[in-house]
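Homework-ish question, so no full write-ups if that breaks the rules, but can someone show me the predicted structure for this set?
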Amino acid sequence: MRLSRNFFSKGAQIAAKNLLGKVIVRREGKRVWGGKIVEVEAYLGKIDKAAHSFGGRRTKRTEIMFAGGGFAYMFFVYGVHWQLNVTCGRAGEGQAVLIRALEPIGQGRSLTETPQGPALQRIASGPGKVSKFLEVDGNFYGEDLSISERIWIEDREEAVARNEITRAKRVGIEYAQEWKDLPLRFYLTESKAVSKRNPRGSGGF
DNA sequence: GTACAGATTGAG
DNA sequence: TCAATCTGTACT
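A: Not a homework solution, just the prediction itself:
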């Protein structure tokens, strides 16, 4: 069943761990597809030097981070890629979880145009690839995942055990000083769909 | 107004 | 190793 707003109001660190194993579902007309979440990062809001919302910074881009849990925060990086985040916590906190990798499920355009086999498993193995696979961009900025008819997250009761999860430092935030090495990235250790630059076997805690 | 780095990726 | 080339921020 669909995750409710309450699920996301708990704060990014808790929500991030709980999101592993959940399924993002995307619908566009009769086409329904999505993937199991296998890698995430938590951004803790105003206090987190790695977060766009650090210091309570509100811009047109970050505004949705302060709206409370359960909204899509889309942003564009490196002039190339969209990234999908889900806002967390309470209004004003600026917390979010970055969805970094999915294992594909179902039949989407992205799936049918890709050769089946090993390549399919890695079709959404990185934050930029997740958005491309799900066909989401700035048009999904602020989408309410608790009521949206085109994207939501489901709990399919495939429980994830603590010992299946690796904790590691977050990627690409070397500027974040004392926050850069905190273990706020979580991924399913055995998944073949985790992002490429994931230093598997290192960086874990 | 201008400069520059960034929660990345795939090709070379 | 590098280009791609948008957005926010820190300066002139």
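Now go work out the reasoning yourself. Hint: Residues 125 and 193 of chain A are 5 Å apart (CA to CA).
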